[in-house]
């Protein structure tokens, strides 16, 4: 994606972004979310990128609200697969604010996803995504991911708890020579 060069182009891009966010918000608030649902995977990247931007706080807050509203739309199994795939790509973004910004949306999707399909159908993707965020280099992202991960474990129950304990114990073991971020992830998962 190319950055606008002139000030006039930048103003036009900001206005278009704000218009799109307002349209998404109005669509979801007025019970027309079924129109928006098929487009959510394509809209997630620009909405979450705007939410992670610190240039205009009002636009950032609108984008965060918009992301939460998109998580409340009706979700099918196929749509949940696409959204988790998009979030997995965003979890590798260079901006830690963007990586951390996917967590509130992910928490809602995991909770609502348990009612869309049998428990565990998307568990492997969600587990991999949460573990990658738990191993993030930024401490704020790791700590926020720990809260979402705890909810994920509660949703899936004892088998997930056993998997997580085994994973956490290997990371938190002092003699393995793992980086501090990995050991911290293990300690957060154990707690």
What number is the mean pLDDT?
86
What's the gyration radius in Å? 18 Å
The count of helical stretches stands at 10
Alpha-carbon distance between the two ends: 41 Å
Structural class: mainly alpha
Strand content: under 5%
Structural overview:
It is a single chain. With 191 residues, the chain is mostly helical. Helix content is 76%, strand content 0%. The chain has helices at 7-29, 33-36, 40-52, 57-71, 77-90, 96-116, 123-134, 139-156, 158-172, 180-190. Helix 5 (77-90) packs antiparallel against helix 6 and helix 6 runs parallel beside helix 8 (139-156). It is flat, with a radius of gyration of 18 Å. The termini are far apart. 31% of the residues are buried. The model has no long low-confidence stretch (mean pLDDT 86).
SSE layout and pairing:
Blueprint: H1 7-29, H2 33-36, H3 40-52, H4 57-71, H5 77-90, H6 96-116, H7 123-134, H8 139-156, H9 158-172, H10 180-190
Helix pairs in contact: 1-4, 3-4, 3-5, 3-6, 4-6, 5-6, 6-8, 7-8, 8-9, 8-10, 9-10
Explain briefly what this protein structure is.
By secondary structure, this protein is an all-alpha fold.
Using brief descriptors, characterize the structure shown.
191 residues; mainly alpha; 10 helices; 76% helix; 0% strand
């Amino acid at each position: 994606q190319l950055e606008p060069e002139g000030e006039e182009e930048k103003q036009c891009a900001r206005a278009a972004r704000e218009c799109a966010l307002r349209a998404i918000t109005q669509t979801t608030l007025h019970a027309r979310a079924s129109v928006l649902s098929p487009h959510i995977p394509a809209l997630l990247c620009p909405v979450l990128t705007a939410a992670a931007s610190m240039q205009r706080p009002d636009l950032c807050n609108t984008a965060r609200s918009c992301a939460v509203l998109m998580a409340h739309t009706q979700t099918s199994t196929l749509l949940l697969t696409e959204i988790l795939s998009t979030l997995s790509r965003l979890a590798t973004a260079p901006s830690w604010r963007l990586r951390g910004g996917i967590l509130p949306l992910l928490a809602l999707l995991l909770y609502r996803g348990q009612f869309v399909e049998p428990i565990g159908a998307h568990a492997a993707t969600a587990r991999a995504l949460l573990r990658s965020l738990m191993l993030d280099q930024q401490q704020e992202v790791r700590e926020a991911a720990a809260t979402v991960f705890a909810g994920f474990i509660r949703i899936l129950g004892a088998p997930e708890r056993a998997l997580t304990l085994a994973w956490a114990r290997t990371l938190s073991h002092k003699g393995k020579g793992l980086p501090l971020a990995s050991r911290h992830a293990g300690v957060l998962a154990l707690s």
